[in-house]
Amino acid sequence: MNNHLNLRQNKRIKYPLIAWLLIIACLLLYSLCPGVSYAGKEGVFVNNNVFFTLEEVSLSKSSDSQSMQFRVMLTNGSGSAVDFNNYGVKVATADGRSYYAQLSEKADALVSPSSDKTFAFIAKVAPDLSADQLNVTFFNRSRNQLELGALSVSKAMSFQQNDHQFVFNLSTVDASQTGNTFVSVQAGRAFAYPSEGKWNVLLDITAKVSGTASTWDPTGLNYVLQDAQGRSIALTAAKTEESKLDGASVTRLLLSAKLDAQPDADKLVLGLNVKSTGKDIGQIGLQSLFQSVKVGETATLTGQGKEGLTLTANKAEEIIQSGKHVAVVTATLHNGSTRSIANPVLTGLLVSKDQQNSLATDTVVGTEKYTSAGKDASYQFVVEIPDELKSTGYELYISEKTATTGNAQNGSNTSNTSNGSNSSGAGTNTGSGSGTGSSNGTATTVTLPLVALNLDNGLQAGEDGAPVSDSALGSPFVFKADNQTVDKNLEISLVEINSHSNPETGYQSVIAKYKVVNKGQETLPLPELATELQDSSGKTYTGTKQTTVLKELVPQASYAYSYSYLLPPGIKGTFKLSILAGSASSAVKLPIATKQVAVKSAEGDKSEINGTTLQLYPYDVTINSWELSGNYSNNTWAYKLALDLKIAKQSDVMVDDSTGSLEFELVDPTGRILGSSTYTLQGANKLVTGWQAVALTNVTNNQFQYPLSVRVYETVQTPNGSAKRLLVTLKQ
Predict the structure, then answer these.
(1) For residue 463, what pLDDT band results from cuts at 50, 70 and 90?
(2) Which of 235, 424, 456, 689 could form a disulfide with 255 if both were Cys (CB 3.0 to 4.6 A apart)?
(3) Cα–Cα dist 110/130, whole Å
(4) pLDDT at residue 31 is higher than 60
(5) Mean pLDDT of 368-375
């Protein structure tokens, strides 16, 4: 008795009144037009109140077999419970062939009145059958196997063709397992790339375990890579995700191996066998899984929490930066879900296919930690290309670094391994290789491959594209609109840049001072800027940032900090100053703003005239008068520098203890340094307006000459030590 129900798609009957109305409507339709198939969901009636529907079907094809997984819903619109055990299910074809279907998940057989319940099944079917050739047939066990009707697989509410999947009953391959435990292994994306003289093969798989022992660990299998010659290479399995779904456990694994030679991807097969006995279970062909996308194409990301996420490579360029060839690939992560997501940590590996070698890229990202629904996040993958690795054809492998809890297991060390290594897989956390798991289940980092980007057309010629800003001091930098380093609400300007040549050390010290203004309405992190000066010949000099205390800037406030640059003493004139994207650890940094600057040399050796104002932004320090006096006692000299100062600070600029330091250095006419002291303009024991006493003590050298002088420096503390700029010399 095969009746067809015109039910609304994907809606389950949950209320008695709705159930009765639908049943009555369907019975009226059937009585008027028997045998007619109505649009919507098919159903098989047990009686006027109870019927079956086919909810979900998936056909899983491995190398030489096919499994069908499906769910049936029993809707009970009657006033008493219905026992599902009274009914049977099988898979059949129009020509009379039938296949046994087994329950694959635990479920209570009783269906309460005015409710519904689904039951999961698995059946092995002939590998050549398609969905339109298959039906799910229902029969009544209590009435001598009376057939009730059949439902078309192709008309199920949800149908999915799962290629590269193998399904088996665990008890049929492992005598230690009892009951019905079903394991489905679905192969996902596959990757093969050269690195450090080896070929890394990575395979992303998902193992679903349901039934009696749904908590069984899929790392209990051996995973083996096999080629057309029958050679086998052990694969290491690292857990990357674990979850529960409809009473089943779902585990995502990253399989990896290192090979001595490039594999023929079209002939690779994933073999499964029992770890304890070595018994073969089945095979999954991998031929079509080694896929790549081109620039402009969109790749859908898979995995837990990645629903709705896509990644698109927008452009791939080669630019000349500081005389180096640099590859820059720009990609957009689109959040097509209905929720905000934490931006993933993405890494890149640029492969020169003809050179069969690879380069790990730096990743440039914005300061935003989350991307809202419907919004985008931008990533840049940047790497310098050595001349020996230049190529007309590249591939970029984009991966995600993720923390996971699990363990890594080696695959079967099968014999006849000749073109592969029996090592434990990728085993490192660099590039796009997999990270090893921990044997005791502690947290570890795994690098999951996401996308292989085909760059066979080569890298297009590009320019750094950094806009040129007004050269005047105090004028804001103009940043690239798509830069990921400086928030649009931050205004950055150069307020000072001066140099001082030190004949004793043989180099020229340039100190540049930058002012940052938060023009927004919320507190923002201070960006970690990289900067460089470039002279007229193209030589570049990297800036070292002052060690600062302040990490965030409140709305409508300003902050100033310095960068120091070491140059040869003879370099003068106008320089190109660039602000670069990338942290201090980045190997390659790209300009996001530039300006031409004239570096002024300090005339600190000129005798000080009373009333001179020393400018060390955000402070102006005026020396109204000074006097140097000394006292000799116990074979040492103690000098005191008395200063009448006027100190003013820019009122709108925030300061901390790292802002503004003056070093006083006592020297004789030969340039010998007799002693020094450093005083701050902020914090404890700071210099203030009025008369100040600067102590220059413990001068033990009795061979110095007169007259003495005091050199006054501005000092900037950096991770590489103290950088100094001579401000003035106080001569006796």
Answers:
(1) low
(2) 235
(3) 33
(4) no
(5) 90
d(CA 222, CA 279): 10
If DSSP states are collapsed to H, E and C, what string results for 148-198?
EEEEEHHHCCEEEEEECEEEEEHHHHCCCCCCCEEEEEEEEEEEEEEECCE
CATH code matching the domain that covers 612-731, chosen among 2.60.40, 1.10.150, 1.10.287, 2.10.260:
2.60.40
Cα 137 to its chain centre, rounded Å, is 48
CATH of the structural domain 293-461, one choice from 2.60.40, 2.30.30, 3.40.50, 1.20.1090: 2.60.40
User: 3.40.190.10, 2.40.40.10, 2.60.40.10, 2.60.40.1470: which CATH number matches 490-601?
Assistant: 2.60.40.1470
Q: For the residues 203-226, what does the mean pLDDT come to? A: 90
Query: How many other C-beta atoms are found inside a 10 Å radius of the C-beta of residue 708?
Result: 20
Q: How far apart, in whole angstroms, are the C-alpha atoms of residue 525 and residue 714? A: 27
What does each C-alpha distance from 31 to 3, 34, 350 come to in angstroms?
A: 10, 6, 67
CB 662 within 8 A of CB 712: yes
Structure token pair of residue 731: 């001569």
Q: Residue 455 — φ and ψ, nearest 5°?
A: -120, 40
State the pTM of this model: 0.64
CATH architecture of 16-162: Sandwich (2.60)
